[in-house]
Structures are given as C-alpha cells and as structure tokens.
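Predict structure. Chain length: 446.
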Amino acid sequence: MAATVFAPVPTGVQAKPVVGERGLPVLGVTAQLLRDPLPMMRARHERFGPVTWYRAYGQRQVTLFGPAATEVVLTNRDKAFGHGWEPILGAFFRRGLLLMDFEEHLGHRRVMQQAFTADRMRGYLEKMQPGIARHVDRWAAGTELAAKPALKRLLLDSAAETFMDIRLGPEADRVNAAFLDTTRAPFAFLRFGFPGGRWARGLRSRELLRGFFQELLPGKRSRPGTDLFSVLCHAETDDGERFGDDDVVNHMIFLLMAAHETTTSTLTSMVYHLAAHPRWQERLRAESLELGDTLAMEDLARLPSAELVMKESTRLIPPIIELVRRTVRDTEVLGHFIPAGTQTSVPLLFNHHMDQYWPDPARFDPERFSPDRREDKGHRYAWAPFGGGVHKCIGLHFASYQVKAVLHAMVRRFRWSVAPDYRFAPDWSGLPVPKGGLPLIVRPLG
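Prediction complete.
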C-alpha cells in the first residue's frame, strides 16, 4: 500500500509532514495489534521512522516511536498534549483520573493524593496481607494452579478489603466478571451496542459497577474510615476541594480496575518468568525466607530480587502497551508537524524492546536493572511502564507493594513450574494476560 501524508504542513511552518498508511480498509492495523503488536510496530518503525500514522480501533492516529518522542509527549512542556483515552475508554471509565487534563486533572489528583500518603500506604500493606495469605494457603494445598484466574480473584479481593474495607461474598464473581467485560470492551471490533457483543457487555457491566459502588456510598459518607473509599468520600484540600458522589464512584471504578487488572497483568508475567527461570525463583525465596511471614514497610527494601524481576517483567510485557494522547493545538515532534485534534500513541511495548537500549531485548534478564548495569538509564524514558509526567500512575507504589506481598507469600509456601512444552502467549485484546490461564505445577516446600 502506498504511503500518504497524514496532514499537510501549513505555509510558513518549518517541519516535515507525518507519513504512513492506514492499513486495511475500515480495520486498519487493528487485527495486527490484537494478534501480535510488536512485529507490526517494528515494521512500521523500520519503514516510516519514529513518527508515522496508521488507522486502528476506528480512527487515524499518529504513533511516536522511541524514548525521545516519548519524552516530548509525557513531559508536555508546550501543553500541546491532552489525554487521548476518551474515544477508547470514555464509555466505560468516564471521569476517571486518566481521562482528565490540566487544571481539572491537577485538582482531582491533589484530592486523591491524600489516599496515597506514606502513613496510608503503610496501613494498606498491613491490611492486604491476611487476605493474600488466605488465598495462597489454598493454592499451596494443591498440585496444579490456573494462575491467571487465581491471581485475578486474589487481587480483586485484596483491593476490596484494602480500598473498601469489605469482604466480597457471593457477589465477587459477578463483580470480577463485570471488571473483565469493562476492560475488554474498549478493544472491541464493533464499537457500538450490538446485542450480545463485547461493547454492549461492557456498557452493562459498567452500570453494574456503578450500582455496586453507589449502594456502598452512603455508609462511607456517614463515617470516616481508613480505607481508600472512605478517604475519597471525606478528603478535602486546604482550599476546600472535595469530591461529589459521582466523582467518588467514577474514581473508585477506575482505581479498583487499575488495582487488580493491571496488577494481574504484571503478576502473571512475573509468575511465568519465575516458573521458566527457577534460579530467579530461588533468589526471591532466599530473600523472603530471611524475613517473617508478614512484611513491614521496612522489609520491602530487603527484597531486591523481586524489584528486579518486576522491572524486567514490565519491560517485556508492560501492563499498558501504549499510552494515548490527543493534541489540543498544533505541535511538532522530532521535526514533524502534528495538527490539533490528532490522536497520538506512545508504544511502550516497542520502546521496551529497542535493541539500542536493551541488548538481546527478548531475553529475560532482570540484572539489566541492577546497580552495576542500569540499562534503563540509557534514556529516562526507555523504560516507562507507569507512564510519566503529570499523568504518571498515582498507584504505582501501591502496586509494587501488592506485587511483592503476593510473591513473598507464594515463595514461602511452594515452588511452581510450567510444563516443558508450555509457551507463554499473551492475549492482547485487553490488558495483556496469558492465554489459557497460565497452568502451573505446584509443589510444597520441604
């Protein structure tokens, strides 16, 4: 297919046009992104360079490859980039923090930050561990484990106890399914309410989640508490800013999704790599066995191998494979003209596999991040699984604590492996998780 210009460069502007091509009629490159995105990204970069365009998920977008372009977008010094998630996530996660910009985003983030202070994080770590232990004890009693659904259920229960101070009962499967439908719907081929389709299921599930949180809201409003839901209901800045009921519900839907869906992606990747590389599993186990069964905040620094494995796993498979933005004014990136109103994407998956920053990038090698190598220092945005700039993930430290607490419980109770013929294949139709549930072979310690 012949290359074409995305938009003409205005007279007097000293910049190059963005060149690319749409892909297939109607679908563009959507099928390739859903099947295996990295080869398509590499082919586009090789053909058109770091700034190009194609059609995906029903719209044209300019894709900005490499950490240099990523830095321009995420630091956003000329305030040319607003969030670009509305066409993708707006129907399902409307008014979440990720879907806000500039002063509004700053105001909501300022209120929400009160739920992520050091003291509250210490309390969350303490509160989550008994529930984690209950789940992992059940896993240790068996010989096989479908890791993806088991981890997803654990993380949903953990988020409910930590963020809402409730124990999910019979409704847990219903809420879990609703979150799954809601996170998969934005990547549907048919992006309208076709009966029985993924988009329609997502809309129904979003309403179920809204009702679930609204039912709990009056109780949270009526009395202060230490859980995140209560904090959002009562948080107030020095300027008197507070969240209304709709704000609280919208933020809880988004935060609970992030707290267990993105962390499921990270943990399944880590658990697989620890199964495939038992030497690293033993390194984590040795460090955890030096500590008690329950982690204190001060213990986290004594788990350096878990930190290295988490960084390498999120390099290989970032929980969000690309960040999207939309230009709010004409701008330039790496000398290319991009007009206002352009959907743009920063492909983290591609950046994390660039061999000029990551030697042998497909190889699992956590030592890349060790103090004597620090390959991530080749460019400040060579590794950015949690984004950057003002939109950097507000819960990244919580996610790190949760991941380490789960792995600490697992390595102290059992060893796990995968069958010799098992091949890890991510499902790219939502947040990347392994197809087939990631079947593990479990053996108790001893």
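Summary: Residues 4-444 form a domain with the Cytochrome p450 fold (CATH 1.10.630.10).
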